[in-house]
Amino acid sequence: MTQPTFLETPPSTDAVTAYDESHLVTYIRLLDAAAEGADWREVVSVLFGLDPALHEARSRLVYDSHLARARWMTEHGYRQLAARGRQQV
């Protein structure tokens, strides 16, 4: 069995991490799915490859924690990414 490419819960620091940067597409897809009212079970299955019927608690934790981090990125983290981009120019 291979290790998942995601953590059970993403980092909960006040700084953007390498984990966040490597999961930006996942965060965007989570936000889009939530905005469309998609069922969390389908989302966690597609994005994380988890089966919520077999592991409901774990699947819900992964979904909720990553969605919360995605929302944090839209409120706070994006500023750090933008500042890094300006420094590189």
As for the number of domains, it is 1
How many individual β-strands?
0
Helix content: 55-70%
Distance between the termini: 42 Å
Instruction: Tell me about the largest β-sheet.
Output: none
Order of helices and strands: HHHH
**Percent of residues in beta strands:** under 5%
Dominant shape: elongated
Q: Which class of secondary structure composition applies to the elements?
A: mainly alpha
* H/I helix tally: 4
| Rg calc | 14 Å
Overall average residue pLDDT? 90
Low-confidence stretches: none
Quick description:
This protein has 89 residues and is mainly alpha-helical.
Please give a handful of descriptors for the protein shown.
single chain, 89 residues, mainly alpha, 4 helices, 0% strand
